[in-house]
């Protein structure tokens, strides 16, 4: 409640300040406002443009698709956001998603080649195994960042390679020989991908959307209502101040990375059932989308700032734009370049807000 | 001189002191420069979207691997995938399409196309 | 606002800022205020340096104990030993009757020993109460209880008569209020000893009054306060006891009534300083070198500043912290963006859009933050001297070592830099010598206009004199010097003319020989 109040005040304050300005300053203030919100404006323009070109973009089918994909990408973004709040990042996220998906798949496919003869286990077992495996890598990340004071970029670059190696070796176990895993147990698929709400033959909202909503609520509580969450923001804002105030900085950093890793495992859990086939490239480059979504959603690299609502909005906006680009059939190779530029521009806009103006 | 700005020795709201800038601590760029970069980036984005959009739609390629050629299909986003005419190959029997060359993940036609795809033909010696 | 009072003629200033502490420190008072913190024979050595040599300090409950000394006298080392940042080599610390040995600030804080740092160490993007309860959030059922935090914060603020909304984000508050929050945090730990490290260096006069009110309130409640400051008038006004340190040694501890400024300076420096400033030998020529017209900053509050500077003139820029002094220099030099106004050098308009333009046009800027923006710590003196001028040494596409050596030698001699050799790392030199190296670096670019921002900050009294002499010599060679300083006696003693800034504007211009600190202070408060 107080949040909306301060927001209103901010808008009012802006108008008050604006009215007090002279002509030149007014122009500058408007330019500044436009630039600071450039990402939202360009997305809005793109949505209108695509909608006119491809009216199907505004169909139920399309909305459902956007919501489903947003939900599937939220857990990884929620995890990575914690690392960004600590002024770090995590580029091992995508590979960890892959590892989790591979582990879960290896224990829940019929006709198992990795563990020949193994019947699909109750889904909680592979899920916990995947979480544990990711948590271990998350711990290595967090420990190295907290104790060696290495930049997370370097640490997670290393663990990303390590994780990839583990995935490749794991896929060679048994008689699998590195091949794609498919043919999932129907119970697992139903639990994750079963229909929650249906809007027609090809427009259904699956169960995992519900799980992700619960996850968002849980993360909101962790971020805003627990000592760990507040410590995380304090460490991200000023590590030294947190240290002298008696916050266990190392433990906080490690916990953030482990929590993030668990989120990646959940992403892998959802993705396995959603895509229905898992291989060594599952999860590749997921972290790029997640980081871009966080920056667009106001989780700034400046550290110590960010809201769960911002992350949800960021992931949603990014999904809206990418679904739109799919509708106008933009070449996949161009999509990589577009994603890269979106990250750079989002960072530039973010920096502009925090720039010490001279 | 007119009285205008009374908050003299106060840090301006939103202005971050240098020790608290996180990754942006060492930022050394003028506002003008960064504004230009943002605008250039946005223009590049728009150009790429226009350049990259294919008029025909999302391509789905079929690799018949020795069999008769199967034409590329173009789909709209989320359009259901339809099976093309089966290719033929002398001395072989066509088994179906798969995502991988080892024919381990067979294609289920009827699903929605979300991205570019490439399928491989699976052959069984007669 | 950093007014160090001159040895002579500083008496009326004490009255301007406030009265001397009038408490009578007789035996009854001493009995009522027992020693609560006792540091005995503290020794601490760093490789090659004896930082603390048997220093003792006794602080009484319910009193303000001032700790004074020049930079490098060992004040901060002593405090760092108390808070466990450094491990003392020998010596004991007795607090509240028990020997203690804190291993970190947190432990000290929990035991009731707190410190309000000069550079406030806060999580600026969080709100006030998050900062106060950081590291010990009250929880209910595993969740942080915001309601309890708010209640407790309000209680502490009411208690201290601080008027701050506990939900304000720290970065949106002025420094003074952030400092109040830090004090409230110390109080919320029920601290029995609170150390204030240069607390007034960035406060306005009004804010200092409020701070003193709070300090007095804390003292009356029995809190022992250690007050570290350079400002004599403040110390004489607020403290009960004064301890002076010099070169890592204890020099004297006296009750305030037995001290005066001359005595303190004498104790601090170890000799009497009669001539703190060299004679003003520079000749101000009629020729106008720099003309600044209607200068306004794009993003700073610098507004409509105009002045003319003559050849061979030393112009001081006075004002409170945040009055736009640094911004004025930065805008002239092209570091900060100019919104309006023109610059003229010898009657020709120049642009100075970037620092590189400015250097080409014959300007040089000595920055305030020497460590951060001035020196290359791990490079040697030669590299530090020639870095701004490398194109000059290029011969056949390569740098000529010989020329660089010659110039560095010239700089070492001309600046009287005390160094064993050119290849000494600059970080091993003292602050004064570092400053001279940087000054030498800029002189090699043969500037006409020298912009000096706090050229003597953090430099010993002795070394200051040499810097003053250098400045005076430069002006005698026909250069124009624009010098920002927070130390008014310095401006009065060195400059020919003083521009007083206030609230981003030029509040007035005074002739340095016919003015006093009071006139400058009045002008400095004009647009506050």
Topology of this structure?
The complex is a heterotrimer of chains A (358), B (126) and C (528).
Chain A: H1 2-19, H2 23-36, H3 38-53, H4 60-85, H5 93-108, H6 124-148, H7 152-171, E1 181-182, H8 186-193, E2 195-198, E3 204-206, H9 207-225, H10 227-237, H11 239-244, H12 249-275, E4 277-278, H13 286-296, H14 308-327, H15 332-354
Antiparallel strand pairs in A: 1-4, 2-3
Helix pairs in contact in A: 3-14, 4-9, 4-12, 4-13, 4-14, 5-6, 5-7, 5-12, 6-7, 6-12, 8-12, 9-10, 10-12, 13-14, 13-15
Chain B: H1 31-52, E1 58-63, E2 73-75, E3 92-98, E4 117-125
Parallel strand pairs in B: 1-4
Antiparallel strand pairs in B: 1-2, 3-4
Chain C: H1 11-17, H2 27-32, E1 35-46, E2 49-60, E3 64-68, H3 75-82, E4 90-95, E5 98-100, H4 105-110, E6 113-116, H5 128-132, E7 139-140, E8 143-144, H6 146-160, H7 175-188, E9 193-197, H8 205-220, E10 224-228, H9 232-238, E11 241-246, E12 249-255, H10 261-269, E13 288-297, E14 305-310, E15 314-318, H11 325-333, E16 338-345, E17 348-350, H12 355-360, E18 363-366, H13 370-373, H14 381-386, E19 394-395, E20 398-399, H15 401-414, H16 431-444, E21 449-453, H17 461-476, E22 480-484, H18 488-494, E23 497-502, E24 505-511, H19 517-524
Parallel strand pairs in C: 3-10, 3-11, 6-9, 9-10, 15-22, 15-23, 18-21, 21-22
Antiparallel strand pairs in C: 1-2, 1-4, 4-5, 7-8, 11-12, 13-14, 13-16, 16-17, 19-20, 23-24
Helix pairs in contact in C: 6-7, 15-16
Structure description:
The complex is a heterotrimer of chains A (about 350), B (about 130) and C (about 525). By secondary structure, chain A is mainly alpha-helical. Chain A has one domain (about 60-355): ABC transporter involved in vitamin B12 uptake, BtuC (Orthogonal Bundle), CATH 1.10.3470. Chain A is about 75% helix and about 5% strand. Chain A has helices spanning about 1-20, 25-35, 40-55, 60-85, 95-110, 125-150, 150-170, 185-195, 205-225, 225-235, 240-245, 250-275, 285-295, 310-325, 330-355; strands at about 180, 195-200, 205, 275-280. In chain A, strands 1-4 form a two-stranded antiparallel sheet. In chain A, strands 2-3 form a two-stranded antiparallel sheet. In chain A, strand 2 (about 195-200) and strand 3 (about 205) form a beta hairpin. By secondary structure, chain B is α+β, with helices and mostly antiparallel strands. Chain B has a four-stranded mixed sheet, with no helix packed on it. Chain C is built from 19 helices and 24 strands. Chain C is globular, with a radius of gyration of 25 Å. In chain C, about 50% of the residues are buried.
């Amino acid at each position: 409640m107080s949040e909306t109040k301060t927001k209103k005040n901010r808008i009012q304050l802006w108008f008050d300040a604006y009215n007090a300005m002279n002509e030149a300053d007014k122009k500058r203030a408007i330019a500044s406002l436009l630039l600071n919100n450039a990402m939202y404006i360009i997305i809005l323009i793109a949505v209108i443009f695509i909608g006119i070109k491809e009216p199907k973009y505004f169909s139920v089918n399309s909305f459902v698709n956007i919501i489903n994909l947003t939900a599937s990408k939220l857990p990884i973004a929620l995890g990575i956001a914690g690392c960004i709040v600590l002024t770090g990042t995590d580029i091992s996220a995508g590979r960890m998603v892959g590892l989790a998906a591979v582990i879960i798949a290896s224990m829940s496919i019929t006709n198992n080649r990795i563990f020949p003869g193994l019947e699909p286990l109750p889904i909680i077992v592979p899920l916990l195994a995947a979480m544990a495996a990711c948590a271990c890598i998350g711990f290595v990340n967090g420990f190295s960042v907290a104790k060696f004071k290495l930049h997370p970029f370097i640490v997670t670059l290393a663990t990303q390679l390590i994780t990839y190696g583990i995935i490749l070796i794991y896929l060679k176990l048994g008689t699998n020989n590195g091949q794609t895993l498919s043919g999932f147990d129907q119970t697992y698929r139903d639990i994750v991908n079963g229909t929650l709400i249906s809007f027609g033959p090809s427009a259904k909202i699956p169960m995992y959307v519900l799980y992700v909503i619960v996850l968002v609520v849980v993360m909101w509580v962790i971020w805003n209502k627990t000592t760990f969450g507040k410590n995380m923001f304090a460490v991200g804002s000023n590590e030294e101040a947190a240290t002298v105030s008696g916050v266990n900085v190392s433990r906080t950093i490690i916990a953030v990375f482990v929590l993030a890793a668990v989120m990646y495992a959940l992403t892998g859990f959802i993705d396995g059932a959603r895509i229905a086939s898992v291989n060594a490239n599952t999860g590749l480059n997921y972290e790029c989308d997640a980081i871009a979504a966080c920056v667009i959603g106001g989780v700034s690299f400046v550290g110590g700032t960010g809201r769960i609502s911002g992350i949800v909005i960021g992931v949603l906006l990014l999904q809206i734009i990418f679904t739109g680009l799919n509708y106008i059939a933009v070449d996949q190779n161009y999509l990589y370049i577009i994603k890269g530029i979106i990250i750079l521009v989002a960072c530039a806009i973010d920096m502009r807000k925090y720039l010490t103006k001279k | 001189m007119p009285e205008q700005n009374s908050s003299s020795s106060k840090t301006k709201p939103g202005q971050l002191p240098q020790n608290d800038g996180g990754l942006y601590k060492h930022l050394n760029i003028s506002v003008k420069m960064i504004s230009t970069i943002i605008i250039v980036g946005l223009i590049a984005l728009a150009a790429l979207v226009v350049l990259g959009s294919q008029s025909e739609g999302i391509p789905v390629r079929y690799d018949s691997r020795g069999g008769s050629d199967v034409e590329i299909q173009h789909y709209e986003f989320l359009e259901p995938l339809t099976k093309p005419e089966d290719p033929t190959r002398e001395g072989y029997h066509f088994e179906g399409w798969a995502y991988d060359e080892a024919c381990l993940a067979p294609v289920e036609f009827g699903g929605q196309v979300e991205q570019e795809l490439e399928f491989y033909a699976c052959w069984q010696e007669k | 606002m950093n007014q160090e009072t001159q040895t002579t003629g500083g008496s009326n200033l004490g009255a301007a800022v406030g009265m001397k502490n009038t408490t009578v420190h007789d035996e009854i008072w001493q009995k009522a205020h027992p020693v609560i913190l006792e540091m005995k024979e503290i020794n601490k050595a760093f490789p090659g340096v004896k930082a603390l040599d048997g220093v003792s300090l006794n602080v009484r409950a319910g009193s303000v104990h001032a700790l004074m000394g020049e930079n490098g006298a060992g004040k901060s080392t002593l405090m760092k030993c108390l808070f466990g940042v450094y491990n003392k080599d020998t010596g004991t610390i007795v607090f509240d009757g028990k020997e203690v040995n804190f291993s970190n600030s947190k432990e000290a804080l929990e035991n009731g020993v707190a410190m309000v740092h000069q550079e406030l160490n806060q999580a600026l993007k969080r709100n006030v109460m998050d900062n106060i309860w950081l590291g010990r959030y009250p929880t209910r059922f595993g969740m942080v209880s915001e309601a309890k935090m708010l209640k407790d914060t309000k209680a502490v603020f009411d208690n201290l008569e601080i008027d701050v909304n506990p939900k304000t984000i720290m970065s949106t508050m002025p420094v003074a209020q952030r400092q109040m929050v830090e004090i409230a945090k110390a109080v919320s730990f029920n601290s029995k000893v609170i150390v204030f490290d240069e607390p007034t260096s960035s406060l306005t006069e009004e804010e200092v009054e409020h701070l003193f009110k709070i300090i007095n309130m804390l003292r009356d409640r029995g809190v022992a306060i250690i007050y570290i400051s350079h400002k004599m008038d403040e110390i004489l006004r607020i403290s009960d006891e004064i301890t002076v340190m010099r070169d890592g040694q204890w020099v004297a501890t006296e009750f305030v009534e037995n001290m005066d400024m001359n005595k303190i300076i004498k104790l601090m420096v170890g000799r009497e300083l009669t001539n703190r400033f060299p004679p003003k030998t520079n000749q101000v020529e009629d020729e106008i070198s720099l003309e600044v017209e209607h200068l306004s900053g794009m993003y700073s509050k610098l507004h409509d500043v105009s002045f003319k500077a003559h050849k061979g003139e030393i112009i001081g820029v006075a004002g409170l912290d945040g009055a736009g002094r640094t911004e004025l220099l930065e805008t002239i030099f092209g570091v900060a963006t100019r919104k309006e106004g023109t610059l003229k050098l010898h009657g020709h308009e120049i642009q100075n859009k970037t620092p590189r333009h400015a250097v080409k046009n014959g300007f040089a800027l000595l920055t305030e933050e020497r460590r951060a923006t001035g020196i290359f710590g791990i490079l040697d003196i030669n590299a530090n001297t020639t870095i701004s001028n490398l194109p000059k040494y290029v011969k056949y596409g390569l740098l000529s070592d010989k020329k660089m050596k010659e110039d560095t030698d010239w700089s070492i001699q001309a600046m009287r830099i005390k160094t064993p050799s050119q290849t000494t790392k600059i970080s091993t030199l003292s602050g004064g010598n570092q400053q001279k190296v940087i000054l030498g670096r800029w002189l090699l670019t043969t500037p006409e206009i020298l912009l000096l921002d706090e050229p003597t900050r953090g430099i010993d009294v002795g070394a200051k004199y040499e810097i003053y002499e250098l400045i005076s010599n430069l002006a005698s060679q026909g250069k124009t010097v624009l010098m920002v300083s927070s130390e008014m006696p310095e401006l009065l003693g060195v400059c020919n003319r003083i521009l007083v800034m206030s609230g981003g504007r030029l509040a007035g211009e005074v002739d340095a020989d016919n003015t006093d600190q009071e006139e400058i202070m009045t002008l400095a408060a004009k647009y506050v």
